[in-house]
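Hey, sorry to bother you again with one of my protein questions. There's a protein on my desk that I can't quite get my head around. No rush at all, and the record is pasted right below.
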Amino acid sequence: MEIKWQVATQQSQTMKQFLLKNGISQRLYAKIKAQGLPVRLNNRLSSPADQVQNGDQVSLTLPAEPADETVAVSGVPIEVLYEDDYWLVVNKPAGLATIPGPTNTTDTLLNRIKGYWQQNGATDLVPHIITRLDFDTSGIVLAAKHQVAQSLLQPQIEQHQLQKFYLAVVAGTGLPEFGTIKAPIGRVGVEPRRRVIADGQSAWTDYWRLAQDERLTVLKVQIHTGRTHQIRVHLSDLDHPLVGDQLYEGPLDWGIDRQALHAYQLTFNDPFSQQKRQFTAPIPADIQMILPTKINDKL
């Protein structure tokens, strides 16, 4: 696999310094040197001491990652929103797990991505899921095509710089036009339900009210942290559970048979091209059916 960077820095640095600052671990760098893997600077073979400057292009050819033979291949199609040499963006349907677990090892989104790549001749790719969604949450999932791409995005994840927006339909009315929820989330015993508890992990959610009728409210939601069930926990703690969310006691007979939550937009800075990437997933039909009004222009 060839990885390319468009250099965007005013600080001159050696090739070795550049690679170590851009997702190449010390262990992988040692492997590059030992195996003589080609590193190019502006299409010419480079040495570790060569100076890398703003506007340069760096490319590195890496061997394929070892395949994870424990992950089964699923031939069920996926909805691809975007794909390039490093990233795959998929619109996950509700009712599908993101990764294999004890109850399903053969047909999750990860299995389907592996099958999709194999069907298209990319048998040497290993999917690395960046953004996960709950089983019954639909919407955008980002996967990296190589561990280097994943590691390059990790600082943005840790610094909460990935912008993730959701559409949520909740029971009840009376929420303000804008709200911020900063309440720690944790687990009590072994129950699957998470709760707002004093000694939980910090969690931060913002929401904007888009529409409401006599019994429900439509929200645009942004999460700044990625706790399990974060949106579901925070909104149910406000006594506004998601419509269709059985686990958090949302109403189950309002026209949708899963929690009304859809990850509709994702934005991040591509560390390879130094460009902002923004993706949008259309609102699925089952959520549109319960909306009191069309809200696409408000998202």
In short: The chain is about 15% helix and 30% strand. The chain has a mean pLDDT of 93.
